[in-house]
Design a protein that fits this description.
Blueprint lengths: L14 E8 L6 E3 L4 E9 L6 E9 L8 H4 L7 E7 L5 E4 L7 E11 L3 E10 H5 L8 E2 L3 H10 L10 E3 L8 E2 L5 H9 L16 E6 L2 E6 H5 L5 E4 L17 E2 L2 E5 L4 H7 L5 E6 L4 E5 L3 H4 L29 E5 L1 E2 L11 H6 L4 E3 L1 H15 L2 E8 L9 E5 L18 E12 L4 E9 L10
Parallel strand pairs: 10-13, 14-15, 14-23, 17-19
Antiparallel strand pairs: 1-2, 1-5, 3-4, 3-24, 4-8, 5-6, 5-7, 7-8, 9-11, 12-13, 16-22, 17-18, 20-21, 22-25, 23-24, 24-25
Length: 452
């Protein structure tokens, strides 16, 4: 089936169907659509919650002869129903389903005079606010992916009704909540996780926890890179002439494009993107061990978006006692703490497992450090006509022209083209226009695969 084209017509005003604010005090509903200035909706793989900001003109007769701000009044945590659709009937509905409601997190009056004011409200999901009221105090035993599901869905914790998309982990990790917040714990577990589907322990590690309109996601870095591309986008200087000039195999043309490939070598080395050292000490037997994994040694054992990792200068490679590394992590081996088992008649099970490692830093810690920092090796930003089918964490295929003397030649750039992950997304809507802005990232350079 032919893919749907997203043309420049999608930059025209989209369909904002509902913006209703519900009073905490009386339950009364007020629509602010009549005074809407703009609506911005955000998703990111680095954010725990979806967010939205709404700016509107607040007239003095909105409710009970007062402004919305004073008449409802808006004090925070008000439920807000928001619904908007693009020109291809992709709808984001934060109103009808109970689990998708958004709530006022911040209120900012931007200007005031005697007849009207301009107000901006920031919205977040229910779980974002609930996170401040929930603490984890129980013991968690078993696989990390099971812990994530429990924290998100258990009625004693966040108890979300949203869809939860969790990629299974291969490693177990036992811990006690220690009065930590759910989101803090979920992000802490992310860097200790290895996927059973897309990662090999000792070669790659690291997950992202984030929320999109589709629900909560707990995905490995390699799992995100292993997805099928959702859209193919091309950028060049030719207008799309309302869809008549989009090349075959692409869904749309980008309206703007910029790239940020200026790698700060010192910063990357400080963060351990390409070479790290782990110093381990085992208090059980006083064993001391130094492990130095490098990205070059692990090359080919994990998924990359492009053809090659950045090639650094061999002149700076070290050997001998201070062999190749740029970051050091010191760890005590977590052996014998919280062994699985116990209960009536099961004490021997814990004794048998008392010598096992609870967490294996030599197989996980530095591998996740490298993968997180590699993922942002190449970054691009594009603006496209409004398309609400895209979400943070999706993979897209981007092609851009190669800079050359003959400006009439639109040869594809083999270095910067290819697969990217959507790291950040913003839908921007005003009464006059609709755009989607994407921050794209990947861990490597060179075009692989095909746009069609």
């Amino acid at each position: 089936m032919a893919s749907q084209k997203i043309t420049s017509k999608s930059s025209d005003p989209s369909f904002i169907k509902r913006v209703d604010i519900i009073s905490n005090k009386t339950g009364q509903s007020v629509s602010v659509m009549g005074g809407l200035v703009n609506l911005s909706y955000y998703e990111s793989i680095l954010k725990d919650s979806v967010r939205a900001t709404i700016t509107f003109v607040d007239a003095g007769n909105s409710i009970n002869d007062k402004t919305v701000l004073d008449g409802l009044p808006i004090v925070g945590e008000e439920r807000v129903y928001v619904k908007f659709a693009d020109h291809n009937e992709n709808t984001l509905d934060f109103g009808d389903a109970l689990e998708n409601h958004m709530y006022v997190n911040r209120v900012t009056p931007l200007s005031d005079d005697t007849t009207r004011s301009i107000v901006q409200i920031e919205l977040s999901s229910k779980e974002f606010i609930l996170n401040e009221k929930v603490r984890l105090n129980n013991r968690f035993d078993g696989k990390i992916s099971e812990h994530v599901n429990r924290i998100l869905t258990d009625k004693n914790y966040l108890h979300t009704l949203k869809k939860v998309d969790i990629e299974a982990t291969s490693n177990n990790y036992n811990f006690i909540g220690n009065n930590r917040k759910p989101y803090y714990t979920l992000n802490w577990l992310s860097k200790n996780s290895v996927s059973s589907e897309n990662q090999k322990k000792g070669s790659s590690a690291g997950y992202f926890f984030f929320e999109t309109f589709e629900g909560f996601k707990f995905k490995s870095i390699d799992g995100l890179l292993s997805q099928e591309k959702k859209k193919s986008i091309i950028y060049n200087q030719s207008p799309d002439t309302r869809g008549q000039n989009i090349p075959e195999g692409y869904e749309m043309k980008a309206l703007q494009y910029s790239k940020d490939n200026a790698i700060d070598v010192q910063m990357k080395l400080q963060m351990g993107a390409f070479s790290t050292r782990t110093v381990l000490f085992d208090p059980f037997n006083c064993d001391y061990k130094v492990i130095t994994p490098t990205a070059e040694k692990k090359k080919g054992s994990y998924k990359t978006a492009g053809k090659d990792l950045p090639k650094l200068n061999d002149e700076f490679n070290r050997s001998g006692y201070n062999k190749e590394f740029s970051r050091t992590t010191y760890m005590l081996l977590d052996r014998g703490s919280l062994p699985t088992g116990g209960g009536e008649g099961k004490g021997n099970e814990q004794v048998k497992k008392s010598g096992e490692q609870n967490f294996e830093p030599q197989e996980i810690l530095n591998q996740s450090i490298m993968r997180y920092n590699q993922l942002y090796s190449q970054q691009s930003t594009i603006t496209i006509p409004g398309d609400y089918s895209l979400h943070a964490g999706d993979v897209i295929f981007l092609d851009v022209p190669e800079l050359q003397k003959d400006t009439k030649n639109d040869d594809i750039n083999k270095q910067n083209g290819g697969l990217y992950i959507i790291a950040d997304l913003c839908h921007y809507i005003t009464p006059n226009e609709t755009y989607t802005k994407l921050n794209l990232v990947r861990d490597s350079f060179g075009r692989t695969g095909n746009h069609s």
